[in-house]
Amino acid sequence: MIQDVHNIQKMGYVDIDIDPTLDLFVEIQKLKKEKNAIILAHYYQDADIQDIADYIGDSLGLARQAQATNADMIVFAGVHFMAETAKILNPTKKVVLPDLNAGCSLSDSCPPFLFEKFIQQHPEHIVISYINCSAGIKALSDIICTSSNAQAIVESLSKEQKIIFAPDRNLGSYINKHTGRNMVLWNGACMVHEIFSLEKITKLKVRHPEAKVIAHPECEEAVLAIADFIGSTSQMLAFTQKDKCSEFIVATETGIIHQMIKNSPGKNFIPAPPTNACACNNCPHMKLNTLEKLYLCMKYELPELFMDETLRLAAKKPIDRMLTMSKELGIQ
Ligand code: 13P
Ligand code: SF4
Fold it and tell me: How far is the CA of 86 from the centre of ligand 2 (A)?
């Protein structure tokens, strides 16, 4: 190999020219069999990656698949905190990801050393953290949640229970509003979900009066206020399949639209526009992964995710608690 292992781990991806005559879909299928690998992909991945994945899902679904798999190698097409969750649940399996640099602005908004101080300032509070955070934050938390189960988990706790919710202030205030709680919120946000323009969505609604606005709870309150449906990526997808409406304005990362079109070919899906002319409704972190990097990471089994065992065990506790609670609460 041109790059050595250390350099690949440092750079975050394998950078080798690929024979352009190769059919990467065929090659990836071969590698899957050869290595007993499973490809888990989030809905925000490129269409090509979604099409070759063994499982596509939201954060809860991906964590559950990671827990249940018999594969020897988990190829995680998503961002770092998701692959980290897979490793936390599967310490003996090899977890690789196409680009180790695929981070998350929301996760980055909550550094563990500051969060630890924040917790100390709020004694008697339990800590519920959204899965979009680092293992360091998970290790400081009592329960992890995702956008699929956050409200149900909060509602299952006694009303007297004082709660810190981190790192997403938008999801936190959405839950506060719908449950009548007063959770203390960490001031973090996702760069993609904060960029939607209320003004432009309103204008779109004028041109498409029948269209329903569907939004992810990471969006700002003003956008959520005009949404006809609010839910996690998989809940949004299910809503577009079930609902009679044939047109939807989609306020989340655009990758999900690939599945929406596949599942409801006759319906029209319009990405909610961002405040400026950039393609900011594409997550730059998710989009670091490409089909080429996916192929190379499977071929060379690099870059690999490693984790300190003490940190892993501490981070696993609140994830296990979430998985148990979700089962008990009947969350799909
Ligand atoms: P879900 O797919 O769990 O709704 O999460 C969305 C997201 O922002 C992932 O980064
Ligand atoms: Fe993080 Fe937002 Fe990208 Fe999801 S969409 S990975 S929350 S930056």
Answer: 17
